[in-house]
Amino acid sequence: xxxxxxxxxxxxxxxxxxxxxxxxxxxxxxxxxxxxxxxxxxxxxxxxxxxxxxxxxxxxxxxxxxxxxxxxxxxxxxxxxxxxxxxxxxxxxxxxxxxxxxxxxxxxxxxxxxxxxxxxxxxxxxxxxxxxxxxxxxxxxxxxxxxxxxxxxxxxxxxxxxxxxxxxxxxxxxxxxxxxxxxxxxxxxxxxxxxxxxxxxxxxxxxxxxxxxxxxxxxxxxxxxxxxxxxxxxxxxxxxxxxxxxxxxxxxxxxxxxxxxxxxxxxxxxxxxxxxxxxxxxxxxxxxxxxxxxxxxxxxxxxxxxxxxxxxxxxxxxxxxxxxxxxxxxxxxxxxxxxxxxxxxxxxxxxxxxxxxxxxxxxxxxxxxxxxxxxxxxxxxxxxxxxxxxxxxxxxxxxxxxxxxxxxxxxxxxxxxxxxxxxxxxxxxxxxxxxxxxxxxxxxxxxxxxxxxxxxxxxxxxxxxxxxxxxxxxxxxxxxxxxxxxxxxxxxxxxxxxxxxxxxxxxxxxxxxxxxxxxxxxxxxxxxxxxxxxxxxxxxxxxxxxxxxxxxxxxxxxxxxxxxxxxxxxxxxxxxxxxxxxxxxxxxxxxxxxxxxxxxxxxxxxxxxxxxxxxxxxxxxxxx
Length: 624
Description:
four-stranded antiparallel sheet; 624 residues
């Protein structure tokens, strides 16, 4: 009970700190402001750690007898940064009223870098910019000074580390799409780490962002009574600003990041770890990258299972990871869900070779929708294992887990995976890996599938193709069939449209579409989570595997108050841009969706209209 109360208090403290810090931001862009706030928290943290050891050295008691408090080696031995006098927190705090405070903080950052080679060119020096008012900076320093443990026995350093991690996530949320470029939601990172269990060895992330995979890997090791140095981390990042965040994030957690490299060219063109063979690879590469310099890499040694297509780097990332695996190594790579079913020739060939020739794919996990800040594209986890061809008990099978119904909405726009979801999925995977007796299939959730069965379905890797329907979903299908029979006139109208367009009829998809209830639709346009995205089902009905592969979209939501009749009124605008080759399919999909609404709810005040502007289709849904 006391532990829970403490956690609640700490969470409340972090939220209050965030609200106050955000108030002090004023007119500074959030992307710039994050470097100000995170830089100060980092400096306070390393200063507190330094002063803690400095005090012990000064006392000269016990193990510290005869120690020199100014000897840099004393601090290196304890993995603590040496902080010169002018950069120590109490020095800056004593000068918060000075008009040139920003210059003093910048000088402090330079001084810390000068004393600690691993921080060279990492810390922010943005505090003397004109848009950062010295009084606001002073207030921010005073705010950071108040960060203290709830428990009197706890260390202030540990609290500051926790606050740094919390603020990193909050800044990513505040930045929205841009935030997704440097931050992967913590719940997703936890799931990857829980599945792979990187307990000892080399851990590699070829697109490491702000270093969350490394931090969570270290936490896993320590939670299982290991030591932080049981793992060594290797990483690469092509965005220098993001790389600096990764260096700060790892440094504040006491992780050696000397092998976390940056270069402009990125992992494909300039692999910073060409000779590395890692024991664990944990990665969330950018999805569906089109321009990835494929022409220069056509004969690259990494493409052992086929040359990735020009217009999409998904399978380049998979093969880059495989290339860097040690003979007994394992990898967890997050890719868009469309990679499981893509029909381009090269991607099909690579996916086939990974199963048929390499026997590398161990497990596929469907993730819930809306997990990421910078894309609405649904994702899946690919788990690869180099040891599947030896005495591995599951070498002729692949585990499919459908977790798309898991999770919850944690903000207006994004969702998260719950701790109990992570536990259930990871426990299922580890039980399956142990052998036959420890695992059994669960309808609608997981299935162990032979490689021959996968081949029969042309190496399509979507979990829902294999796990089947849960019992309650089967009952829903029966209910839907009865509903269809009860409204035959409406069904005939929709069926005429289907035949006119030449769409094939799939009972499962068709029943699912007919079963869309008013409450489900309302959750859809209010951007709340639903079991299966409606557009995904419609795409399946017209034989398009992945909505995101044919269109780019954006949402706006507006609560317009009262309409002309005095009733509450809201609108969702979904703007979708199609490339020319998918224009006809896009028009059909939106027309189909509009027709379904009209047939199912002819008496409702739900209006759907589609507007055309060049190659853009705009669908407007007005609800009562």
